[in-house]
Amino acid sequence: MSVLLIEAFHGGSHKQLMDLLQEELQDDCVLYTLPAKKWHWKARTAALYFMQTVPASANYRILFASSVLNLAELTALRPDLGKLKKVLYFHENQLAYPVQKCQERDFQYGYNQILSWFMPEHKLAHLEKVIGVKRNGDAYHPEGLPGQQKSSALMKNSNTHRESGLCEAQPGLYTTQHEGLPSPLTVPARLNTSEVSESANPCQEEDKEHLTFNLSHILSGPDYQQRPLHIAWPHRWEHDKDPETFFKVLLKLKEKDLPFHVSVLGEAFTEIPDIFSEAKKVLGSSVLHWGYLPSKDDYFRALCMADVVISTAKHEFFGVAMVEAVYCGCYPLCPKALVYPEIFPAEYLYSTPEQLFKRLQNFCKRPDTVRKHLYKGETAGFSWAALGSKFRSLLAAEPREDL
Q: In terms of Cα–Cα distance, which of 1, 146, 7 is closest to 66?
């Protein structure tokens, strides 16, 4: 077991990435995890837990972990692990993570991240030579990578791969080719051939318990173009995804008597913003689906049904749920901020909630314009076919004394 994988919050996109790496590395890795609960507690104490539970081994060469773990603490507590080559994957930036209430920010979590990737001058110089970063004042930026990675060159994989947030996407991915989108062979994750064949189409499979309608009939029926616009919101039910803005726009559409359907997907945790229960009552019959779909097949069938996918996020390194929805044929509407302008063409961006409302208002009146639309962006670079070799190279490199 030459690669030691550690995940202190093993759920959502964190679990998705670790599962993919396990599949890729097979017998050459070992994984240690903590459940995806009480994130703040995990960020404070995970190093102590893994110090006690990860057994010593002379076979470890590389340590791969997400930034929930305070890597500096772990390597101080376990000097044997400190000698390994270390890869730290940032799913989010805790220095810029939105606070839920107007109160003083707890800087411990951002401080943990700074300690975990801080390096002395000689190692930064080596990093510049090895992976191609250039110095800009006191900061380092990866050459050729988007500007969202402004904190550290070590954060580059948070955008060049596909993870975002603490719990966003369903594990695994298989989508159908839909109206001119890339082939399923270029989906942004490895196809799980043990579960789904390459020719399978999630929009044409039999319905399961969560979806009681025949999707293949809906997508091919004679009145498909006349059906109300179907809007999807596939994000965590938490404040950083800004559900308030999303539902305010939908309620305004409702007030205008504009026809639409909505599927509110994504995972909920202990504290659910009040806006969800309030909006569900008002939206009433406009709701097609409400809540988390544990089956990835059901999840992607729901996305295949939708016409438009919306993000109202206030913090995003990538937005895997948005890209998944695009692969399922959805028209994306994202804030003209954060990472989105680096991924989506200007046509799919909005600057204010008013602009989002106007776009959806027009789509509600003419849903056929969305259904006939061919996505104009490029997403092939996010596929495992494009990124797999980079991860393999990263995790297969022999350790060096100067790393």
A: 7
Q: What is the pLDDT of residues 214-248, one digit of tens each?
A: 344 445 455 666 799 999 999 989 888 999 999 99
Give the pLDDT score at 194: 30
Q: What is the full DSSP assignment across 144-189? A: TS-TT--S-GGGTHHHHS---SSS-SPSS------TTPPPGGG-SS
Q: What is the pTM of this model?
A: 0.65
Q: Name the CATH topology of 3-165+384-396.
A: Rossmann fold (3.40.50)
Domains 3-165+384-396 and 184-382 share a fold: yes
SS3 percent helix, strand, coil of the chain, rounded to 5, is 40, 15, 45
Write down the architecture of domain 184-382 according to CATH: 3-Layer(aba) Sandwich (3.40)
Give yes or no for residue 79 having a pLDDT over 90: yes
Place of tokens 């992976």: 131
Helix (H, G, I), strand (E, B) or coil at 265: strand
User: Does 262 have pLDDT greater than 70?
Assistant: yes
d(CA 319, CA 232): 14
DSSP conformation class of 104: -
Question: Per the structure block, which two tokens stand in for 137?
Answer: 């004042």
